[in-house]
């Protein structure tokens, strides 16, 4: 069993996948689309990655506002969650992703990645941080997971 982590953005989706033991998250790719509303190809690519990696669950970053309210981006993420569940038939857990992009940028700065190159990687690294946070919480709860909100 593997779990997929997704960082859903307006024009990109960062993808990470766990190892079979559900201990670590690894970045896979960034799916790019021409328009925010065009998600059919994005969903098809996610389905392919699910099949190739024997994924049984998806963790989707949930971009709540810093004051814990749900804004427009979170509402779009909820709609994407429904698309994912219908299309893949897999359970999708929303996972609080506040500050993951900030953490991803900080990690790239500390790694010496040049500013002009950071945009190429930030969504994939954010997906890794989302999934790793979920995996860590899951292992602390005895492997049950939970909703994470």
Description:
- The chain is an alpha/beta fold and 149 residues long.
- The protein has helices at 40-53, 72-88, 100-110, 115-118, 122-140, and strands spanning 2-8, 12-18, 25-32, 55-62, 92-96.
- It has one domain (2-140): Nucleotidyltransferase, domain 5 (2-Layer Sandwich).
- Helices cover 44% and strands 23% of the residues.
- Strands 3-2-1-4-5 form a five-stranded mixed beta sheet, with helices on both faces.
- A hairpin with a 3-residue loop joins strand 1 and strand 2 (12-18).
- Helix 3 crosses helix 5 (122-140).
- The mean pLDDT is 87.
Secondary-structure map:
Elements: E1 2-8, E2 12-18, E3 25-32, H1 40-53, E4 55-62, H2 72-88, E5 92-96, H3 100-110, H4 115-118, H5 122-140
Parallel strand pairs: 1-4, 4-5
Antiparallel strand pairs: 1-2, 2-3
Helix pairs in contact: 3-5
Q: Summarize this, please?
A:
By secondary structure, the protein is an alpha/beta fold. It is built from five helices and five strands.
